[in-house]
Amino acid sequence: MAGPADTRCPGTARLALQLLLLPLLLPPPARPAAGAQRYEPTWESLDARPLPAWFDQAKFGIFIHWGVYSVPGFGSEWFWWYWQEKQIPEYVKFMKHNYPPDFKYEDFGPQFTAQFFNASQWADLLQASGAKYMVLTTKHHEGFTMWGSKYSWNWNAVDEGPKRDIVKELEVAIRNRTDLHFGLYYSLFEWFNPLFLEDKFSSFHKRQFPVSKMLPELYELVNNYWPEVLWADGDGGAPDSYWNSTGFLAWLYNESPVRDTVVTNDRWGAGSICKHGGYYTCSDRYNPGHILPHKWENCMTIDKVSWGYRRNAGICDYFTIEELVKQLVETVSCGGNLLMNIGPTQDGTISPIFEERLRQMGAWLSVNGEAIYGTHTWRSANDTVTPDVWYTTKPKENLVYAIFLKWPTLGQLLLGQPKAIWNSTMVKLLGYGQPLKWTSLEPNGIVVKLPQLTISQFPCKWGWTLALTNVI
Q1: Cβ neighbours of residue 232 under 8 Å, at least 6 residues apart?
Q2: Fewer CB within a 10 Å sphere, N or C end of the chain?
Q3: Which pLDDT value is given to residue 275?
Q4: Band of the pLDDT at 11, cuts 50, 70, 90?
Q5: Which residues form the Glycoside hydrolase family 29 N-terminal domain (predicted)?
Q6: How many angstroms separate the CA atoms of 402 and 460, rounded?
Q7: What are φ and ψ of residue 325, in 5° steps?
Q8: Considering only CA atoms, which of 297, 293, 349, 300 is closest in space to residue 323?
């Protein structure tokens, strides 16, 4: 909802004026570069656009879910919907026991203070995680925008709560202090926005909401903040024709200031997911376990239950670093990117449990990143003989990486997939200086003798990588 109270909504006359002035409010078309590919507003044309190379090379990103839902910090970022629309008993009980009877969701707005939000600290932590891109939620289904949108009816972070342009502060910090690509999430629909609800009641024959709010906000985001990832979500059951998704994407790819570098996902209307867009997400926490022909992303949460911050989470509700490393390795071996989510608190603090996981992932990547960044899928994603062994490759360097998640008790690792080339194959353990001895098996496979190490000598703690040179 753009504003949680009806008093925030524009009157009929104001809405009519907005609709008339919309062509003047939208950005003027920019001239595409000479000889540039021109994309038509059809899925056939848009889906043919090559994915900018940086995205496949990056492999690992951080998702940040932060908004007014971080204030109650209970259950889920879908708090408003579960409390008022679904009236789930645990949410109703929480509100009854902690807030006065007349308390409304809009009353959480002033409590979303962000008083300890420090964009530079966030940027430094994201850099330390080893991530190569990040995606910030600029507006979730509650409608609260994290920048001072002209179309948000004052339900935004500049007019309410923080009284700051969160998107701009983080953009500046990310670009000045890190090498991460800057990305933005945007929910197309809003649960309780009266314009969207009226459009929905008309079976989406009316298009008041996308014309007066959603599309202008998207143009604002792109032109003001130049995101290199535009992560759409939340179609509300409406088709892409209602959202004019193909028209917007044609502008994004042809004329926008990020037309050469921006990547988009597949959530642009009912029926588009896992079918159209720059890369596929298919579903939350999507991990097929095998190689897919189309570029995809596994968006998942460190908190097993919620994308937003939860005060009621216990330690067992968080994935361990071993589990997260496994997610990353499996995802990259199958051709995907991992987008790992954290949920800051209402005051802008990243909880110690999230900070620890981010720094642990960065420590692991500092040793094993060679087997992750800039790699490709190999002919086999995982080993068929030894469990928990996953493969990536750098063909130009004639390298295959075997990432194993369990150190064998007998000190020998059997790899059933690679075939050695006699007097040519070399095996190294990343983070360990000496080449390793190996024995060839027929018709395929090698046995690698691992070094005997003390705990302090292990190059890392949660998974290890063998670099195999000249194997087929």
Answers
A1: 185, 186, 188, 245, 264, 265, 267, 268
A2: C
A3: 97
A4: very low
A5: 35-370
A6: 15
A7: -60, -40
A8: 300
pLDDT at 14 > cutoff 60: no
Domains of the chain are 6-371 (3.20.20.80), 389-469 (2.60.40.1180)
Q: What six digits make up the tokens of 82? A: 């579960």
Q: What is the pLDDT of residues 19-44, one digit of tens each?
A: 444 444 455 444 445 457 899 999 99
Model confidence at 2, in pLDDT bands (50, 70, 90)? very low
Helix axes 321-333, 352-368, angle to 10 degrees: 50
Q: What is the DSSP string of 74-134?
A: -S-TTHHIIIIIS--HHHHHHHHHHS-TT--GGGGGGG---TT--HHHHHHHHHHTT-SEE
* Mean pLDDT value across the chain: 93
Q: What are phi and psi of 324, to 5 degrees?
A: -70, -40
Please tell me the predicted confidence (pLDDT) of residue 9: 38
45 exposed, middle or buried (CB, 10 Å; 0-12, 13-18, 19+)? middle
CA 282 – CA 66 distance, rounded (Å)? 23
Rounded-to-integer distance, Cα 236 and Cα 270, Å: 8
Matching residue, tokens 């645990």: 90
User: Which helix (H) or strand (E) is 175 found in, with range?
Assistant: helix 166-177
Cα end-to-end span (Å), the chain: 56
Q: Identify the three-state secondary structure at position 272.
A: coil
Question: Is a pLDDT exceeding 50 seen at residue 76?
Answer: yes
Q: What is the pTM of this model?
A: 0.93
Both tokens of 6, joined, read: 């009806």
* Neighbouring-strand partners of residue 82: none
In the chain, % of residues over pLDDT 90: 91
* Under 8 Å between Cβ of 430 and 465: yes
Helices (H) and strands (E) in the chain, counts: 14, 14
**pLDDT computed for residue 454 by the predictor:** 94
Could you say which DSSP state residue 184 is in?
Answer: E
- Please tell me the distance from the alpha carbon of residue 287 to that of residue 56, in angstroms, as a whole number: 16
SS3 content of the chain, % helix, strand, coil (to 5): 35, 15, 50
Please say whether the beta carbons of 297 and 336 come within 8 A: yes
| Amino acid letter, residue 472 | I
